[in-house]
Design goal:
heterodimer; A: 217 residues; alpha/beta; 7 helices; B: 2 domains; four-stranded antiparallel beta sheet; membrane (chain A); ATP binding (chain A); ABC_transporter-like_CS (chain A)
Chain lengths: 217, 303
């Protein structure tokens, strides 16, 4: 469960990315986050994953108040969250398999179980058989899938995606959306940020619309 | 718990594998550390074993009394009686001049030397061993006292030079410790720099790992293990270098010591000394790595 209570985020320099925002996302819900770039979508996702801290108000993730958590505790919160980064953040110095292995290494997973899970995750996103390929050789869509595989391999309870379908053609973007839907169907809380609302409307899920750091409605 | 050790073992192995993947670079790095370490170590070994030898000499100093050539048996008896009643004298030995000449012939291999000489040029002598608890000052007093005995021409305190050498070697050992301390600091700085470069080279990986939930200790661990291997392997390499030195220098030192009828054994590091060296260098390397990691991981923030 994710709960925002009167959350304001002001960056150094005075820019207010989020203003007095309150909402709740239930466990297992699939929610879209819409708004133009600069509306505060990415900031909202960063607050949930503890990458940024709220200036005021409280952010509750899985019943933990991130604003009160010590910095040394944040990694353990993040280990329960899967993040699909807007800029992918793939490591180009290692192959596909090792990229997906990273979260399991961090948690300290048994190596054999881990290998099985990595293969399962790659299979799920349609990259089976590309384990040994270096990420440079992957297409843009495949890199996106690699990023998704890495985000779900440790079976997080919350999945955050920042513009997962940007720069992809519509057919590919729909594929990716279906993928997220399948994670939602097995009980994962899914929050997808995108500026293109046409994709979201097809799914009939709740849409949180942001404009200049506030609800736009 | 078993799993915890398994993860550490995994990191240790990976760090070692990473070093082996760049054999030349790693070897140069290790050599730099080992050479820096072997300087104080070899100085310590040499000064230590010399001091051990000199220490044996000073532990049982001897005073040699040379009698006048014209001394009569009655004079010998007088000296003998005052020596045997002296409270600071533990024992003494009389070497008659004839016996001294025979010894000389035997030892130098110049048999028949006496035939070329007009009579025996050597004096009668007493070799006096003082009580072992005597202080250096008391020994000096004793020497003066004994040289004042009738018909004693000269007295020689054979440990005086040994004590001076002992003092000199004391300085050498202190110098070895000082060098050891400064090279220890160098060790910390070198590993600090090595690990800093590694962190900078893997900045992207560290950033991503932090973003997906890596704790600081997870990120630090591979670097600390790298430092661990640096410390261990450079200590072993240093041991190899100093053993090589010992192998080269020991025959020369033996030759030298044989001139004095002594046997100085120059030995390599003992097992305990090697363990202490390895432990010390590992600790110093870990310290340097930890400093570098703490300093730079604070800079690499998750964004």
């Amino acid at each position: 469960m994710i709960q925002f209570d009167q959350v304001t985020k002001r960056y150094p320099g005075g820019h207010e990315a989020l203003r007095n925002l309150s909402f709740t996302i239930d466990s297992g819900e699939m929610v879209f986050l819409a708004g133009h770039s600069g509306a505060g979508k990415s900031t909202l996702l960063k607050l949930i994953s503890g990458i940024e801290r709220a200036t005021s108000g409280s952010v509750l993730v899985n019943n933990q108040n991130l604003s009160r958590l010590r910095a040394s505790q944040l990694p353990y919160v993040r280990q329960h969250i899967g993040i699909v980064f807007q800029d992918h953040k793939i490591l180009f110095d290692r192959n596909v398999f090792d990229n997906v292995m990273l979260p399991l290494n961090i948690i300290g997973f048994d190596r054999r179980d881990a290998a099985r899970r990595v293969r399962a995750a790659l299979d799920k996103v349609g990259l089976a058989g590309k384990e040994k390929v270096m990420p440079v050789r992957l297409s843009g869509g495949e890199q996106q899938r690699l990023c998704i595989a890495r985000a779900v391999v440790h079976r997080p309870s919350i999945l955050l995606a920042d513009e997962p379908s940007a720069n992809l053609d519509r057919a590919y973007a729909l594929d990716i959306m279906e993928l997220f839907k399948s994670f939602h169907q097995v009980g994962v809380t899914v929050l997808i940020a995108a500026h293109d609302e046409t994709l979201m409307e097809d799914y009939g899920r709740r849409i949180i619309r942001l404009r200049e750091g506030q609800f736009a409605s | 718990m078993k799993h915890f050790f398994y993860l550490h073992w995994q990191d240790a192995r990976q760090a070692l594998r990473k070093m082996l993947r760049q054999p030349v670079g790693s070897l140069l790095n290790l050599l730099m550390l080992a050479v820096a370490m072997s300087l104080p170590v070899t100085l310590f070994l040499t000064a230590g074993s010399l001091q051990h030898w000199v220490g044996k000499l000073t532990a049982s100093p001897q005073i040699t009394l040379f009698m006048e050539l014209s001394a009569e048996p009655a004079d010998m008896a007088a000296v003998q009686s005052s020596l045997s009643s002296h409270p600071r004298v533990a024992s003494f030995r009389f070497i008659a001049r004839d016996q001294a000449l025979r010894d000389l012939e035997q030892r130098s291999g110049l048999s028949g030397i006496s035939e070329g000489l007009e009579g025996n040029p050597l004096p009668d002598a007493f070799i006096v061993t003082p009580k072992p608890d005597a202080t250096p000052e008391q020994l000096d007093m004793l020497q003066k006292e004994l040289s004042g005995l009738p018909m004693v021409e000269q007295s020689q305190f054979d440990a005086a030079w040994a004590r001076r050498l002992h003092g000199l070697l004391d300085i050498a050992v202190k110098l070895a410790w000082f060098l050891g301390a400064s090279f220890g600091i160098a060790l910390v700085l070198i590993t600090h720099n090595t690990i800093r470069m590694q962190i900078l080279a893997r900045q992207e990986e560290i950033e991503v790992a932090k973003l997906i939930g890596a704790t600081d200790s997870f990120i630090r661990r591979p670097f600390l293990y790298h430092a661990f291997w640096l410390g261990l392997l450079s200590a072993l390499l240093c041991w190899g270098l100093s053993s090589l030195f010992v192998n080269q220098a020991a025959p020369a030192l033996n030759e030298f010591s044989r001139l004095y009828g002594e046997n100085i054994s120059l030995s390599s590091l003992s097992a305990i000394e090697l363990a202490a060296l390895a432990g010390g260098s590992i600790l110093l390397c870990l310290f340097g790595a930890r400093l570098a990691a703490d300093h730079h991981l604070r800079k690499v923030r998750a964004h």
